[in-house]
Amino acid sequence: MDENTPYHMGNTNPQEDSLPRPPKAMPNNPHEFGTLLAHLRAQAGYTQKTFAQEIGISQRMVAYFESENGNPPLPILRKFVKALGVSADQLLGLEKVTARKKPRDTRLQQRFSQVEKLPEAEKKDVARYLDKVIRLAKLEQTKP
Q1: Model-level pTM greater than 0.90?
Q2: Residue 123 burial (CB count, 10 A)
Q3: 20 in a domain, yes or no?
Q4: Is 76 in contact with 37 (CB distance < 8 Å)?
Q5: Does 89 share its domain with 124?
Q6: Among candidates 35, 39, 34, 117, which has minimal Cα distance to 84?
Q7: Which residues, 6+ apart, have CB-to-CB distance to 41 below 8 Å?
Q8: What CA–CA distance (Å, rounded) separates 130 from 144?
Q9: Measured by CB atoms within 10 angstroms of the end CB, which terminus of the chain is less buried, N or C?
Q10: Domain around 119
Q11: Cβ neighbour number for residue 26 with a 10 Å cutoff
């Protein structure tokens, strides 16, 4: 064998080397974790990016968990359940998921998450401001 010829272990015929692969799961199979996660995420009104921000992981990790091989560790699974408002059994496909009536406004949810992380004094300032805005909105609704 000369140095320009590639070395092949075993059989050199690529058709004979390939092993049969198992068929891929149906893309709409609700029993696949990744497919179900993607469906629930979209149903809740999240993009992969906004969902990743809500959970505290990268968008790339969300994409991985939504793939056919992605299985999150328990601490992240807990965060998925909380953010999506479903039970762990529903997220794992063990129970039927009840449909939500209205998707979340994720921008508002993200802001509330940020407010929860503020010191108490600043949380009170935000609460007072929200109370004022809500009062004014109710007054506007009652005007003829």
Answers
A1: no
A2: 13
A3: no
A4: no
A5: no
A6: 39
A7: 48, 51, 62, 66, 84
A8: 24
A9: C
A10: 105-144
A11: 10
